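To fix ideas, we reproduce below one chain and its tokenised fold.
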Amino acid sequence: MTDLYAAFDRLKFDRPAPHVLRLTLSNPGKANAITPTMHRQLEDVWAVIDADPETRVTIITGEGKAFCGGGALDDMPTGEDALDPNQRFSTDFSNATRLVRNLINARKPVVSGINGAAVGAGLALALLADVSVASKTAKLLDGHVRIGVTAGDHAAIVWPLLCGMAKAKYYLLTNRPMTGEEAERNNLVSLAVDAEALEATVLEIAGELAVAAPTAVRMTKHVLNHWLRQNEAIFELSAAFEMVNFSGAEAREAMAAMAERRAPDFKTDVLF
């Protein structure tokens, strides 16, 4: 791999086929959870890929048995940790929206290989890919309501478009997980295949895209993603609510309950 990606030291890269770049999320022992450094690198890497003359299509997948467990919980913001709530809100809102916007606006096609659990920000990476391929046994979970915050990473902008409002509300409000097979049935992913066929299927699709007319492919992607851009106000509101929630009692209680392996006890009054 060239020095082009040397600055992205928390991500792994290889070239499994001509003009195909594979980006592998790697955080061993933590289900590839996204640390703040990884998050920043995932925000910035798409512009570098767009400028890479050797890459026409990107595969994104996870190392080992997981795709990505979402944001690292020990790095999640809380009201107690935030010395300056306004600055914390501004920083976290900017980072969250940049990750989504930069992936949507990346010119070259992205294929996700969802090899295992995909949660929160990890699920955003998986579902915002142009073609999403999941192992039938992969576990997909938005995860936000579970930790006491609004589904803000990507879900409000893309789930109703992919699987319809009824299914979006059902899964996002109840926070029930779905398998890759269920996700394909609900139109949340492009394809679901047996686990042993996942890598070959993803490489086949990426290979087809790599030899297709690049300008036509990129312009088609750009036009289709305008369905997402025209709903940017919905996405921004969901992300803002998420950041506000992180400073509240419900998020603190939800995370404490997870750490203590107990059911949360939400005693706050209704705030909205």
